[in-house]
Amino acid sequence: MARLFSPRPPPSEDLFYETYYSLSQQYPLLLLLLVIVLFGLLALLAVAWASGRELASDPGFLTTMLCGLGGFSLLLGLASREQRLQRWTRPLSGLVWAALLALGHGFLFTGGVVSAWDQVSFFLFVIFTVYAMLPLGMRDAAAAGLASSLSHLLVLGLYLGPQPDSQPALLPQSPPQPSQRPIQLHTIAPRPRGPAPSEADPSAQLAANAVLFLCGNVAGAYHKALMERALRATFREALSSLHSRRRLDTEKKHQEHLLLSILPAYLAREMKAEIMARLQAGQGSRPESTNNFHSLYVKRHQGVSVLYADIVGFTRLASECSPKELVLMLNELFGKFDQIAKEHECMRIKILGDCYYCVSGLPLSLPDHAINCVRMGLDMCRAIRKLRAATGVDINMRVGVHSGSVLCGVIGLQKWQYDVWSHDVTLANHMEASGVPGRVHITGATLALLAGAYAVEDAAMEHGDPYLRELGEPTYLVIDPRAEEEDEKGTAGGLLSSLEGPKMRPSLLMTRYLESWGAAKPFAHLSHVESPVSTSTPLPEKALSSFSPQWSLDRSRTPRGLDDELDTGDAKFFQVIEQLNSQKQWKQSEDFNPLTLYFREKEMEKEYRLSALPAFKYYAACTFLVFFSNFIIQMLVTNRPPALTITYSITFLLFFLLLFVCFSEHLTKCVLKGPKMLHWLPTLSVLVATRPGLRVALGTATILLTFSMAITSLVFLPAASNCPFRAPNVSSTASNLSWELPGSLPLISVPYSMHCCVLGFLSCSLFLHMSFELKLLLLLLWLATSCSLFLHSHAWLSDCLIARLYLGTLDSRPGVLKEPKLMGAISFFIFFFTLLVLARQNEYYCRLDFLWKKKLRQEQEETETMENLTRLLLENVLPAHVAPQFIGQNRRNEDLYHQSYECVCVLFASVPDFKEFYSESSINHEGLECLRLLNEIIADFDELLSKPKFSGVEKIKTICSTYMAATGLNATSGQDAQQDAEQSCSHLGTMVEFAVALGSKLDVINKHSFNNFRLRVGLNHGPVVAGVIGAQKPQYDIWGNTVNVASRMESTGVLGKIQVTEETACALQSLGYTCYSRGIIKVKGKGQLCTYFLNTDLTRTGPPSATLG
Hints:
With 1109 residues, the chain is of the alpha+beta class. 52% of the residues lie in helices and 12% in strands. The strands form 3 sheets. Strands 3, 4, 5, 6, 7, 8, 9 and 10 form an 8-stranded mixed β-sheet that branches. Strands 11, 12, 13, 14, 15, 16, 17 and 18 form an 8-stranded mixed β-sheet that branches. A two-stranded parallel sheet has the order 1-2. It is elongated and about 135 Å long.
């Protein structure tokens, strides 16, 4: 039973639960209780009038009824004002209880002779409703219930004190012996009011009353405990659901920002759908496709302008920077460029080292795309000029712009980056490479779209790019109209270098100046996410502060009236809590049918009815308590005939068998020690808990068994109407008569059979999760059975009892309150409607609890899916070891992420033949089919990364048909420096194996596509700086001389070969690889370098040969 009482929640939750939620749920029950009492009083008046009694002749009864009607009408009026109820909850509940108690005691002493069984059913009603329908805590309800019990017992015990001179004729007694004297008749004075003449020693009846009240208290407390547990569970699930919704909203915002930081919205929707499909199909698995190709997310757009920009002199400057300075500098520069791009309706595509390129006219067409790109280029040059003027650092900006059409989208499976491809993109790149520092270099196509918006001058082509010379198209330099104004102003503000001193490094000067630009940090929206609501204290502070002890429950203030005071999260909180209000069950709902409370979704209704119910065993145990109470009562008020004892013995066996079945799982250890043939017994309780049909059958059988045993004593009373107290020879002088019919029970058992029937009604309410329609059927069956017995077939027993009680009195007809059959029938109807109301309320709570549990599970699953999606997206932008730095509370600080490494192997692998293969014609859909093949190549390369042996390989990016990757990035800073050279660079072997695997993949693609592509690979290792830059589109990248040289190793390499530097060749030879010298070659920006080719025929000593194609 202890498991029925949930552990106490945190104070904040408990405060809100007690002040609002619990009261809002029990408020309708309080009103219904008052209505039931008022209708009960009216029914009493109606029965008294219909039975022909003169109400005016019994002023005590009439006064009691009128006072009750007036008092409870007043209480109903007070309780109906809900806004006052919260402040006066306990006083009003106390008044209702006190009024019920006073009414019960008024009934005791009104209408006739006072008997020990008088108003027991009414006090049982008071006791049970104190627990089930009044908004009181468990302690207050228990105190009120016990006080009600004791008041009845003490008042009757004192009033019906023992009278030793009288013999109780209606109590159980032994049959007279033949030698005993016959019954004597003598005169008794008229006694219209007072204790019954036959109840001189009512101890057995008072003991039976005590058992009834104790059972009522236990059943009421059990019912309240179940309801409190259900209410608290639903309340917590609602709060957990709110917490999950907030987390879900946060995760949706996360993944939305992440997707939009990688892709345009139109493309993000398509790719998100595929990721969701992959998550549902299995971790990382790709859904089955109708063809052998990977999904291609590329579209053609016409009427766009492409801008390429390169920072001249940045490479030399970057070599003087610390890692932190480098990342900060790049983030501030590119953050400024992103801001300029946003102002001019351009979209940044990618950052390649210190090269920045963007497009205007994507994803939506813009008529001024050419002007937008030119304006952006001019603003970029202007920003760099201001930087140079303020710091004295010799850097400049070179910009190239071309207008045409592009293929745009994403290729590959990992590290998505939105990119553009076409001959026009290549031309724009060459426009930048052949441009003039500080100027914007444009083509004739772009100039035509400018429509005279800017003045231009012809670009000198003597030292132009070979690609441009081959095209033979004239190019132009845009004249910035504001350049002359800036030259006139000069540097009147003074150089930052002159203020800081001549000894400060240029990189430090530049970093300090760039900090004033205030570019946003990457993933700033992830590092400042509002913390989700804690599960331990899940209530908003403002919401809690609004619930002071004086706060009222005016519906106009909840939630609408608080919207002005509370934020959006608090408003949502109140909206969720308002959905739990029990009054909602009578209104239209998306989830429930207001009449039957069935779920509108058939699948949910089926799931609810088939759900497991582990608490069923406790329902059965409490019903056994009611049965046991009936047994004790029958033993106290009867002479215990053998047939009754045998009947109860059989019933006890049936109950013990039922309880054994329900609790068999707790006997597992004992059963397993016994014979193997009994090892199946513990599974019985599991079957009962999980099989709805079996539960319904056992529950119905249990209730019917309790019902039937409540009226078993009537079987042993005569069925014929031959009451001896109405015989003609029995005069008003007869006294001390006893029941002497063979095999019969004393008349005292008649009213107590009615009280046992009331307990039978209560047993039906103990099955909390039993369906409302089944409870209604059982209650109707029991009501009809009880009323037919006591109002029809055995009604004469009540009349006989009245005749015996009023034998020798002037008034032989008591008031309606003292007639057992009438009061019994009224009690049956009152309990019927009360339990019907509670059954409806219980049904609603159970369904609501199930609904919120299901919602919570769905939201948790959806949240988990969203979290996985966010993780996949973030790991698709960042390496797995970097991604946690940018998620929620794992964000360690507000600094930009940067990391320096001593030994990183960098790979550039390109497919140079693809440039010749790529063409734009109607046959290949303007190059789309060529990109489809490139997508297959890159996707197959990406699939290698999922192999365990290549887990240390990190893809950095793709640049057209060039694949860039690195190893050694998952080591912590400084870790490599503490290890010897061979161990620190052992990952070079992994990169070599990866390069060979790339060649093997390309061979497979060649076989299926009938092509002869070959890889050209460049490798280099050494120190690098890694970091995340860019607020609009955060991008992980690596920089340093190692990266530049690796790129040159690829661009100056030979098809089918892996070219490495001399230092890398030595490191690979120490790992068992064979390298041979290529000789000295000229490398742009590095001069003359001695390079080596890796022998891929024998990668290591022992393994089979492998080639690059």
